[in-house]
Amino acid sequence: MTSEERTRNQITTSHFLCGDRFNPNNICTNCGHAGHWLGDCVFPDDNGTIMGCPVHNTKLHVFDDRPDLPYMTLQQRVTALVVRRRNEPAIRSRKPWIELVKETMGQGLEELVWAPSVWTQEFVVRMIHDRKALQPWLDFDYGQDLVSKLPVNPETQGDLESLLQKSLLWDQVHMPVRQAR
């Protein structure tokens, strides 16, 4: 996909929150297929995540670098990084999605973040490299199939309190190259 196509396929925050996510005319800037946006894409990169901004359907910036991030409510951030990512690869972020779950629970909004939840990078990478494993992103039919059809990651199942105790989930962050060691 060219830079011009990526720019043309960007969406606004209101489209992300209220738009028709599975319209056949939507073009995902992650996988390039029609019928969904990056925020719902299940096609991971080699790291086991989705790189880009789910709110703007773009790979020209990442979620953490969005200029309007400070104006998003907790519920909107949880929708982008947790709710719409159930049984799907995580959106790459410098902040672990489990931290948003903790913040949400602290606000008394537990009903938003029930498990199963976001796939861990390790779970996705195993599916990528195991030739015998199902790679569900290859035949997932957006708008027709439910995310409940996708595999459940055992590490992200269970009650919320037990999920908060799993150190593996707190390690699900993207370290920019200049910070990685």
Give an overview of the whole structure:
The chain is an all-alpha fold. It has seven helices and two strands. Helix content is 27%, strand content 2%. α3 runs antiparallel to α4. It starts with a helix and ends in an 11-residue tail after the last helix. 31% of the residues are buried. Residues 28-41 form the CCHC-type domain.
Features:
181 residues; mainly alpha; two-stranded parallel ribbon; 7 helices; 2 strands
List the helices and strands and how they pair.
Layout: H1 3-8, H2 13-18, E1 49-50, H3 74-81, E2 90-91, H4 97-106, H5 121-129, H6 160-164, H7 167-170
Parallel strand pairs: 1-2
Helix pairs in contact: 3-4
What oligomerization state is this entry in? single chain
Whole-number radius of gyration?
Answer: 16 Å
How would you state the average pLDDT, rounded? 89
Low-pLDDT segments: none
Cα distance, first to last residue? 32 Å
Keywords: Metal-binding, Zinc, Zinc-finger
Organism: Colletotrichum godetiae
Protein name: CCHC-type domain-containing protein
InterPro entries: Znf_CCHC (IPR001878)
Précis, in short:
The chain is mainly α. It contains seven helices and two strands.
